[in-house]
Amino acid sequence: xGFKMGIVGLPNVGKxxxxxxxxKTAAAQAANFPFCTxxxxxxxxxxxxxxxxxxxAIAGSKQIIPTRMTFVDIAGLVKGASKGEGLGNQFLANxxxxxxxxxxxxxxxxxxxxxxxxxxxxxxxxxxxxxxxMLSDLESIKKRLQNLSRKVRGGxxxxxxxxxxxxxxxxxxxxxxxxxxVPVDPDDAKQWRMLQLLxxxxxxxxxxxxxxxxxxxxxxxxxxxxxxxxxxxxSVVISARIEEEIxxxxxxxxxxxLGEMGLDEPGLDRLIRAGYELLHLQTYFTVGPKEARAWTIxxxxxxxxxxxxxxxxxxxxxxxxxxxxYTDFVTLGGEQGAKEAGKMxxxxxxxxxxxxxxxxxxxxx
Length: 365
Prior knowledge:
Elements: E1 4-8, H1 15-23, E2 41-46, H2 50-59, E3 63-65, E4 68-73, H3 88-96, E5 100-106, H4 122-153, H5 157-174, H6 189-194, E6 203-208, H7 219-231, E7 234-238, H8 240-247, H9 251-261, H10 267-278, E8 281-287, E9 291-298, H11 303-310, H12 312-316, E10 318-324, H13 326-331, H14 335-340, E11 345-347, E12 358-363
Parallel strand pairs: 1-4, 1-5, 3-9, 5-6, 6-7
Antiparallel strand pairs: 2-4, 8-9, 10-11, 10-12
Helix pairs in contact: 1-8, 4-5
């Protein structure tokens, strides 16, 4: 089960530098001119989770396999992208394929790095991006409503639902609100997702600050945090330049560097966790002598659905799941200790998996 987060922002805000740090490669060319990222770069990133190492140590697992998120570095946006300015059409199409959006906002001053608008104002930058996405959604809705009208007149029930949802989104957008602010009935949730409107994507604001502000942020990142809170979104502070330096060091050197900078952990760990939380994801584990592995699922996932993340046959032939809570597994010294203490539970098809569950699935082939 893959989850994609698109890294977006105006040109020269640090998107590609951040992507390089995330993927520990130089695949994304970081350069001081707009549109240096012509094709979206894609990188899979391990989600940091100290629990996995503990489980592996207890079970004597030979291999540790973390769960992963996919980050997509998307070409820089400019005002007018919804009308095709810059690389607008390509930019918008690439966002549509992502599950969430990370808005990278420039929260640093640097006379050597040109700002496309000639000023540093992260709140205004965020507004430019949101406006372009909203304008693109309005244009898309207009065309789709025209195409649906004949089907609706012909009594097509599915088309009628789509029309109703599109009109609800259109009303919000015309009032200056993104489509994600529209209350959606659970019965309409699947159809709503299928509309693939850009402004339904959850948003994480990434405040790219100068090195000295990496730990505490600055006045600009504080403005972004206030804006995010008012919108019901979240934000994270990071120095892309520091993170890129850290990504080129080995683990011991990185720890020393972080200590010298007065930082407890890499900002990228916070960013990845924030993205994980933004998408309402959680982790369960499979643990044994061969490997300890983390698996990503949505909150509220049932045991058969969680089994299906490993293989479709596990879900189709699901019999039951044997589960041990993470804390029980650790405090009781592993599977055998948990069994003896009565902490291993047999769960059926209606069981909702909890974050940190250690699971073993039984299924018919």
